[in-house]
Amino acid sequence: MDLTRELMQNLGENGIHRISQEVGMQPQETKTAMSAIVPVLLGAMAQNSQSTEGANGLLSALDRDHDGSVLDDIGGFLGGAMQGNRSSNGSGILRHILGDKKEPIEHGLSNKIGVDSNSISKLMSMLAPLVMAYLGKQKRSSGTGGFDTGGLGGLLGKLAGGSRQSGGIDVGDIMDMMGGLSGSSKSSGGMLGGLLKGMLRRR
Q1: Chain-centroid distance, C-alpha 168
Q2: Mean of the per-residue pLDDT values of the chain
Q3: Please, what is the end-to-end C-alpha distance for the chain in angstroms?
Q4: Domain map of the chain by residue range?
């Protein structure tokens, strides 16, 4: 599944135009940036979920703060109606999943896409709650109790692979900055990381 395309459809042209005004990009630049940012966010979440602690932390966050309602009120989200809610706290989400790699990744995406890193930072903060909302919605629609850590990893891998080519941008080198998707580890987590990084490279 191509989550980038799914989010663009949810936003619609009006939503993309509003986001573009907010972050200081042209609508086409926003679409191009989205096609790189969404796979990077998914890859980072997949990396964090390689450990039991990381996967359980993400599952708990989905249960606690991300029920998917953001996607049901895109207009309210873009208009700031949900400001202050954890479900729309993009900066907090990014701090959790990217840590101290946030700024280098923003600069890497800025250089690759050709837009200001401040605009990239704003756009990432707007997209992170939408990605989490989608994951939360999928968890709730998967049956009683939702999926477990294995189901989460499988979903993230599938989404990362499905979104990798939506804009024709190779973000594998951006994921190298995370330091955990090199595939150099002999653990199963390292093997998964190498697979994901390969999926995020343009083919």
Answers
A1: 17
A2: 82
A3: 17
A4: 3-199
